[in-house]
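4.2 Preliminary Data

To establish feasibility before requesting continued support, the project team ran the inverse folding procedure on a target of 44 residues. The structure was first converted into the token representation described in Section 3, and no sequence information of any kind was made available to the design step. The complete token record follows.
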């Protein structure tokens, strides 16, 4: 039972790290896209 709970907590921590990484990538991508749109609109 102890090993199972340990495995579960490790799994949750891994998932949180993975989701945090994906979230940062998504956030960076959105900011990058917005910056490009703003630059594009100022050029026209």
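Position-by-position output of the design step:
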């Amino acid at each position: 039972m102890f090993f199972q709970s340990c495995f579960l907590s490790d799994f949750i921590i891994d998932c949180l790290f993975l989701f945090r990484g994906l979230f940062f990538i998504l956030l960076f991508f959105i900011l990058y896209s917005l910056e490009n749109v703003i630059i594009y609109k100022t050029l026209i």
